[in-house]
Amino acid sequence: MRITIVLAAVVLVQTAAAQTPVAALATPASYAQHFTVMSTAGKHGESTRWTTPEGVRMGRESIVLRGQVFELDSASHVGADGMLDRVTVRGVTPNGDAAETFNIGGGTATWKSPVDGSSAPYKAPAMYVAFGGPVDLVADLAERLIASPDKSVALLPAGRAHAELLTTISIGSGAGKKQVMAYAVMGLSNTPMPVWMDGSGKFFAVISPLSWIPAGYEADEPVLQKAQDEALAKRSPAMVRSLLKTPSGPVAFTHVRAFLGGDHFAEEQTVVVAKGLITQIGPSASITVPAGAQVFEGKGKTLVPGLWDAHMHFADDASGPMLLSLGITSARDPGNDDALTQARAARRAKGDLLSPRVYPSVLIDGKGPNMAQVASVATTPGPPTSQRRKFSAA
User: Fold this and answer.
1) 391 Cβ partners below 8 Å, 6+ apart?
2) Which of 130, 195, 225, 388 is the most buried (most CB within 10 A)?
3) What is the pLDDT of residue 382?
4) What residues pair up with 180 in beta bridges, in sequence order?
């Protein structure tokens, strides 16, 4: 094992003033846990995590996505309060140097990442959320969160995360058979982040368009993906009932600043909509609002047509309300897990999913080390008719 006590100590205090060469990144211990980084297209890389005899938590990751190279390692340590008190990330990403540091000392938490750097008083236990690094840092956070009695933990630089149980299933076979649980983690992004844990509360996998799954369980990735999507989908009908309001008559947006003609804004406008169509638009002083119309007073506000997102990999059911909240009513999905895309389209058509209209396409790529994630991999000039997928607007 090339990781020595001296190297582990250096990694933890290194300020990463210069980009660390790939050859100088940590070599996994012989007892390290190995993960395969994969998508529906196949394998994209590997990740490992292990703890040194001195208690330093290590991670090492190598990923290639469409020729973009990620070579990373991390070293972290758990303090007396059960939270990470030191973190160092080293390596390279397509954006350049991945260097990141975090340290708690003298009652102050200090961090520096490729996108931010600051410090704050450290008065109560809080878990640092790294900007980058291997999956080991995600695993550390997940394990601490699930171990918390209320499945909640304060975060640094800010915020709070909490987790809710989604589903429990059995995977594997023989000696490798085990029960795993999916949790939805809120507070880390705009939509819930699913994470899978084993029966002892240890990190098992992250299943997403790009998944991290223990070596030997790669064949179970589609099973986990489907179970996770179905568990998240169970929340969708209630959200539709809570948020979707279908007007019984006309709707008027009065005294707004409106975007008109596709090229300019006009002040003090009133827009009347009935049965999904704009029936009147013009200066508020000249528009008569229909009797019984639902009126939205828009003074000081701007009204624009529904927006398009021309490149949006629709990740999960929660992406629907998130996009709608940003004014996006149509989205082009240039590539995704085909089966999940079709399942979400069916839920939207049934009225069980609140979502923009999604226009999906199949991402097709050749097999090889630089293949795109979630691609449908082509190995012959033309697939059999039975393998062709048909899509309609979601």
Assistant:
1) 341, 342, 345, 360, 361, 362
2) 195
3) 66
4) 169, 198
**Residues in a beta bridge with 96:** 93
pLDDT number for residue 8: 39
Under 8 Å between Cβ of 230 and 236: no
| In contact, 179 and 198? CB cutoff 8 Å | yes
Q: Which residues pair with 165 in a beta bridge?
A: 183
- Closest Cα to residue 287, out of 301, 306, 265, 271? 271
How far is the CA of 232 from the CAs of 243, 260, 282, 346, 382, in angstroms? 17, 39, 43, 15, 35
Average pLDDT of adjacent 10-residue blocks, the chain of 394 residues: 35 54 96 97 96 97 95 97 97 96 97 96 97 97 96 97 97 94 95 95 96 97 95 93 91 96 94 94 95 95 94 92 94 92 94 95 88 87 56 48
For residue 258, give the amino acid letter.
A
Q: What is the pLDDT of residue 369?
A: 83
Burial class (CB in 10 A: 0-12, 13-18, 19+), 379: exposed
Cis peptide bond N-terminal to 149, omega within 30: no
Sign of the C-alpha dihedral computed for residues 234, 235, 241 and 245 taken in this order? negative
